[in-house]
Design brief:
alpha/beta, single chain, globular
């Protein structure tokens, strides 16, 4: 999988050097924490289930998993609680908590999502999604929010062996859009997401959610914004 992404990157870079006019500008969104205010909900689910199971320290463990796919998150949790920890059962419980909340209170959409996606429909950009979340949940969330048709390419955590902070997921998204990563923005909220987009050769735009940007994030990010309204204003100026 990793070599597939590297080959795609080399191919797209060479293609754009051959005919620069045909290169398309692209923008690729993360999902949790960028489109939906779901990372906070995920943390609540993990912490509540941990309390029910008398597991200490989940407030410190969960932030390490932000931006990672299921395989890499499992490794972090198992390191924290031991190889005998029943991770599958724990995730079943957290998923049930999360689904119940969404069913009762709805999916919390981030401010500015509709305005930004509506503007992008008539812009020069091709639009993709690169989320470490499993495909089933991604498709469900997008459909529930009514934005499933806003993305030309969707890459999810179960489509790559290792997700963020490795670049694979973003390289695959750019390949799916037919875009050179150097001509693509990535909208991210988490440090792992910013690292992934930067390593893919993209221009990371950070909209912080649960984790405030530090010196590393300011160095790796192309720009940092307080919300998606500011991102929209920036993209309009960039046209």
């Amino acid at each position: 999988m990793y070599w597939y992404c590297i080959i795609a990157f080399i191919f797209l870079t060479g293609l754009c050097m051959w005919n620069e006019e045909e290169c398309m500008k692209a923008i690729v969104f993360d999902m949790d924490g960028v489109l939906f205010d779901t990372e906070v909900l995920c943390m609540k689910a993990w912490v509540e289930v941990a309390k029910e199971n008398k597991l200490p320290g989940m407030e410190e463990v969960f932030p390490q998993c932000i931006g990672l796919n299921a395989n890499d998150s499992r490794r972090i949790v198992m390191n924290a609680y031991g190889e005998d920890f029943d991770y599958a059962r724990f995730r079943e419980q957290t998923s049930a908590w999360f689904r119940k909340y969404i069913e009762e209170k709805g999916l919390p959409v981030k401010p500015g999502v509709k305005e930004l996606l509506d503007w992008l429909k008539n812009s020069k950009y091709v639009v993709g999604l690169a989320s470490s979340t499993k495909g089933e949940s991604v498709r469900s969330h997008l459909k529930l929010a009514g934005i499933e048709d806003s993305f030309r390419a969707v890459v999810t955590g179960d489509m790559v062996e290792h997700s963020k902070p490795l670049p694979d997921i973003y390289l695959r998204a750019c390949a799916g859009l037919g875009a050179d990563p150097k001509e693509a923005y990535a909208i991210e909220d988490s440090p792992n997401g910013i690292r992934s987009a930067y390593r893919a050769g993209m221009k990371p735009l950070m909209v912080p959610d649960m984790i405030a940007p530090d010196e590393e994030m300011r160095r790796l990010s192309h720009r940092i914004f307080k919300d998606l309204h500011e991102v929209l204003a920036y993209l309009k100026e960039d046209c």
